[in-house]
Amino acid sequence: MRLIVxxxxxxxxSYESKVVPAEAGDVQRQECRRAFxxxxxxxxxxxxxxxxxxxxxxxxxxxxLHQELQxxxxxxxxxxxxxxxxxxxxxxx
Length: 93
Fold this sequence. Notes:
This protein is mostly helical and 93 residues long. The protein has helices spanning 8-19, 26-51, 55-83. It has a domain at 26-83.
């Protein structure tokens, strides 16, 4: 069977290279990786849970997750534009 989705480790490496500051120490890098992997675990558990629901409930659940993430991204974009950065801008606070 051909893997359709890239391994989570590859997604982490991509995220790390784009978001984690090059000067980040080992502890900061490890904490970022743990948070990233916890997010990946949540997605996996949510997929499992949604898969056990009927179609309408699963669609509603996916829509709720999608809306929550859209609101989060919008808040980050708004915050970044106020501070003059972007989603990948490294925070100074």
